[in-house]
Design a protein that fits this description.
The complex is a heterodimer.
Chain A lengths: L1 H14 L1 H28 L11 E5 L23 H10 L4 E13 L8 E8 L3 H5 L3 E4 L4 H5 L4 E4 L1 H8 L8 E4 L2 E9 L22 E4 H6 L17 H7 L6 E5 L3 H20 L10 E4 H7 L5 H31 L1 H9 L4 H37 L4 H5 L4 H27 L3 H6 L2
Parallel strand pairs in A: 3-8, 5-7
Antiparallel strand pairs in A: 1-9, 1-10, 2-3, 2-6, 2-9, 4-7, 5-8, 6-7
Helix pairs in contact in A: 1-13, 2-11, 2-13, 2-15, 11-15, 13-15
Chain B lengths: L1 E11 L4 E12 L4 E5 L6 H8 L7 E6 L2 E2 L5 H11 E4 L11 H10 L5 H14 L15 H14 L4 E5 L7 H16 L3 E5 L3 H5 L3 E6 L2 E5 L7 H12 L1
Parallel strand pairs in B: 3-8, 3-9, 6-7, 7-8
Antiparallel strand pairs in B: 1-2, 1-4, 4-5, 9-10
The chains are: A alpha+beta, B alpha/beta.
């Protein structure tokens, strides 16, 4: 019977093209608006490490001033970045499966090819645990070893774009790249990699591109570099780089990977012990306030998705609701206009459920058509966003993925079925005797 | 085939109560052709609507093919309408968006028949009313008489035991009306029970039996059929030969 209802729906929709166009346009507009903002929200709130959300943990220790919290608006929140001394101690203690300590800075890169001019690249100075934790895909080679970390070996991992630029996309593992006046041996080349959001370093833009070059953390320290992102101190430190390293200034990202939930608990206990030990030497004046957040908890705490974006999505869905109310009215007018046909169908044996199914199918078909046109509008909306925000992180977020395509169609279908419920119910109430008499 | 006993039907609004049928008794036997006559507002259409299970009644009993329809739910009534009853309306009530084939198909769809059987029945029914060659035409492309023939084909396609006709020639000129009436006589001759509401005494005279309704009651029940069931069967056999 469903195919029969579909055919009847198609005939009915073709018969009154203007009314059909109005209904489809109402749903398409609503879908277009809401899915455009939904797509941006979806991309913003995605978690590239969702497959191991519970295992990857952000380490936060509250070493801040006794009288002034890290975040005045949220006084229970500890700093979201770490001091060098704590980072160094925790990495060296190696109580987790992997540790990733990192910061970013800019280095000059001098290509071998004369025709490529030297340029500045943003490098991530990271411990070897960065690669197993964040799993960037390798095209060639791999990351470096903990031993190379410790010895500050001049090794580097480059992204595919840099590899294309310097080596024409060839396997460059074993070749040299001249960075900051020194030669580094390339040990790995990444595939195109764009974790969204850039979980490992949300500090200076959660939706920025990953760095082009990755080198051992210890090299950054040896070269006396600090972060080009956040550096915060609550009191003056001793002068010089040694003073920074020994200070309570925070500037480093620290992530660990644990084996399971029990391991996470053990690690949390270890952090408490560590802080209590540090308190003995006069540090950590505030009450014990550590965090060992999962990736999703950390993204939530960092408000990676701003309230404005959520409000925008709600507004778009409110507009969609208005469109649906219009569709209810139009469907009601259409179905009531079909009262004589409904009366006839009831007279020749259609039960109320059969009439209900027929007209709900028609509502669903309107919804699907609206969903398809809505997808086109969503595509146009996202294109407009990409043009409007060209060169910003929004440009990368305004991409329609398959899950959003299916979500659009499903939302359009479900919404139109809901919109069709009342008109369809009214259609079922048609008294055949009344309709047949009035013919 | 159809037996109503002490049946009553009252239409109520918050101001007015109208007794459309009161203590209404009628018995239509299988194979009969009964004409129901009466002035406007006498209750003819109400009787036909109740007979066709399109309306409920307030009191009394109604046996359709030996089964009491009192208290049946909507699904059961729909099923009975679909399987046992065929309707012919004054206004034809064809669906303008569907061609003749699909119009005749409507009642069969709700019987969940296979497509081959439906096709065979539709072609046979349209053949019986002489419109085989017009299957792909739309109602608007036909004359009134042809449209009523399609409506008859639709009613016949489901092989109903009872055919209810409400002023079947009311919208037709005399020539077309004669053609439709001949068709009904032919259908009756093949064994189908027909109850026809009409204003036209000439048409009523061609039925086996006349029932006259005034003020919601049967006042003149001609209970002596002019053409018995045996004769109808013999006529059917003769047509078949």
């Amino acid at each position: 019977m469903f195919s029969y209802y579909l055919r009847l729906a198609a005939i009915s929709l073709k018969r009154n093209r203007i009314l059909t166009a109005l209904m489809v346009a109402a749903i398409a507009l609503g879908i277009g608006m809401s899915m455009t903002s939904m797509t941006v929200l979806h991309m913003m709130s995605s978690n590239p490490l969702s497959h191991k959300d519970e295992l990857v943990r952000r380490v936060q220790l509250d070493n801040w001033d006794a009288n002034r919290p890290w975040d005045e608006d949220n006084p229970t929140e500890p700093p979201d970045i770490m001091t060098y001394q704590d980072t160094n101690n925790l990495v060296n203690a190696h109580k987790a499966e992997y540790e990733s300590a990192s910061f970013s800075n800019v280095l000059p890169l001098e290509p071998e090819k004369r025709e490529v001019k030297p340029y500045m690249v943003e490098a991530l100075f990271a411990t070897s645990g960065f690669f197993p934790i964040f799993e960037p895909p390798f095209k060639y080679g791999s990351g470096w070893s903990p031993a190379e970390d410790r010895s500050a070996a001049r090794v580097a991992v480059i992204d595919s774009e840099t590899n294309d630029k310097l080596f024409g996309g060839e396997n460059s593992v074993g070749r040299k790249v001249h960075l900051g006046g020194e030669d580094y041996t390339i040990v790995g080349v990444l595939e195109k990699w764009n974790p969204t959001p850039r979980v490992y370093h949300v500090g200076n833009g959660a939706f920025n591109d990953p760095q082009s070059v990755f080198v051992p953390f210890s090299i950054g320290i040896e070269k006396q570099l600090n972060s080009n992102s956040n550096n915060s101190c609550f009191k003056n430190s001793e002068p010089g780089y040694a003073g920074l390293l020994a200070s309570d200034c925070v500037w480093l990202d620290l992530w660990v990977q644990v084996k399971d939930a029990a391991d996470a608990q053990r690690y949390a206990a270890f952090l408490n012990d560590y802080v209590n030990e540090q308190k003995k030497s006069g540090r950590f004046p505030r009450p014990l306030n550590n965090r060992l957040r999962t990736v999703s908890e950390f993204l939530e705490a960092e408000r990676v998705v701003s309230r404005d974006v959520r409000t925008q999505v709600w507004l778009a869905f409110a507009f969609f609701a208005v469109c649906l109310i219009n569709t209810v009215g139009l469907l009601l007018a259409k179905f009531m206009g079909k009262a004589p046909e409904i009366g006839l169908r009831r007279a020749v044996g259609a039960s109320k459920p059969a009439v209900f199914a027929q007209y709900l199918t028609e509502s669903g078909l309107v919804g699907l058509a609206g969903g398809l046109f809505g997808l086109v509008l969503t595509g146009l909306g996202l294109l407009a966003l990409r043009k409007l925000y060209a060169g910003t992180s929004i440009e990368r977020l305004a991409e329609l993925d398959w899950s959003m395509v299916f979500a659009s169609l499903a939302i359009a279908l479900i919404a139109s079925l809901i919109a069709g419920l009342y008109p369809t119910w009214r259609a079922c109430q048609v008294q055949p005797a009344t309709q047949l008499k009035t013919q | 085939m159809l037996k109503m006993t002490h049946l009553s039907k009252v239409y109520r609004t918050h101001m007015i109560e109208t007794h459309a049928l009161r203590s209404f008794d009628i018995h239509v036997r299988e194979g009969e052709f009964v004409a129901v006559t009466g002035p406007s507002g006498s209750g003819k259409t109400t009787f036909l609507n109740i007979a066709g299970l399109l309306e409920d009644f307030n009191d009394g009993d109604y046996l359709l093919d030996g089964v009491s329809v009192k208290g049946l739910d909507d699904n059961a009534r729909s099923r009975l309408r679909n399987e046992k009853i065929g309707f012919i309306f004054q206004g034809f009530n064809l669906i303008p968006d569907l061609n003749l084939f699909d119009n005749v198909d409507v009642p069969l769809r709700y019987r969940r028949m296979g497509s081959a059987e439906r096709k065979e029945r539709i072609e046979h029914a349209l053949g019986r009313v002489g419109l085989s060659s017009r299957m792909k035409h739309y109602p608007s492309e036909l004359s009134g008489g042809q449209q009523q023939r399609v409506a008859i084909a639709r009613a016949l396609a489901g092989s109903p035991r009872l055919l209810l006709a409400d002023e079947p020639t009311g919208n037709l000129d005399s020539l077309m009306a004669r053609g439709v009436m001949e068709l009904l006589e032919e259908i009756h001759a093949q064994g189908t029970t027909i109850v026809m509401v009409t204003h036209d005494p000439e048409l009523a005279a061609r039925a086996q039996r006349n029932v006259h309704i005034i003020d919601g009651q049967v006042t003149d029940l001609d209970d002596a059929p002019r053409l018995g069931g045996e004769v109808a069967a013999a006529t059917a056999a003769a047509i078949a030969d």
